[in-house]
Design goal:
With 191 residues, the protein is α+β, with helices and mostly antiparallel strands. The protein has one domain. The protein contains five helices and six strands, in the order H-H-H-E-E-H-E-E-E-E-H.
Length: 191
């Protein structure tokens, strides 16, 4: 078995999103987390620490043959089904950044295959900010993902090389998602 810390976070997120329309056996989440704790113990590793699990590089072998590119948050376009050309930018795509991204960066987590620091290419032009008292202030590293003193956390593209909205010309901002139902319990070891 491999490190499943990030898989468990993903499973907890999916379960939280779908709990109102599907029924889940919560004991499976507990079992998955128990297996992951055993993996860390059996391999004499500290942890697991939330959001700090191993990331396996997925762009290998057959993925490379088909080509790949970094995600482009809030920059997706309608595609003409006949010509294949991009048309209007999609609106109201309900995109969020998961708090685990902020936590992993704040804790100086490693990138894919344990190489370098975690810096998702999709967020290269975005900086983390918090809206407190109506002003954007940079978020300090090390914050617990459940602390409310951060105010409203955003990923803002106006800091470095702005990604702008085609219609308004304003910088694109992506909100940080909130953790629901199973995610806080996973973080706090309560599953």
């Amino acid at each position: 078995m491999d490190d499943a810390e990030l898989s468990n976070i993903t499973l907890a997120w999916m379960t939280s999103q779908l709990k109102d329309i599907l029924e889940f056996d919560e004991s499976h989440l507990r079992f998955a987390q128990t297996l992951n704790k055993k993996y860390y113990k059996d391999n004499s590793l500290d942890g697991p620490q939330w959001a700090m699990g191993y990331i396996s590089e997925s762009y290998k072998a057959y993925y490379l043959l088909d080509g790949s590119s970094a995600r482009t948050p809030l920059q997706y376009h309608q595609t003409d089904p006949i010509t294949g050309k991009s048309k209007n930018r999609l609106r109201n795509t309900n995109e969020f950044i998961h708090p685990s991204v902020r936590v992993r960066q704040a804790r100086h987590g490693t990138g894919p295959d344990g190489k370098g620091l975690y810096k998702p290419p999709a967020l290269a032009n975005f900086a983390l900010v918090s809206l407190a008292d109506g002003a954007c202030i940079p978020v300090q590293s090390g914050h617990n993902p459940f602390q409310s003193d951060l105010g409203y956390v955003l990923w803002d593209s106006s800091i470095d090389r702005p990604v702008t909205d085609e219609t308004t010309g304003k910088p694109v901002v992506i909100p940080e998602d909130t953790l629901c139902e199973f995610e806080p319990r996973l973080y706090q070891g309560g599953l």
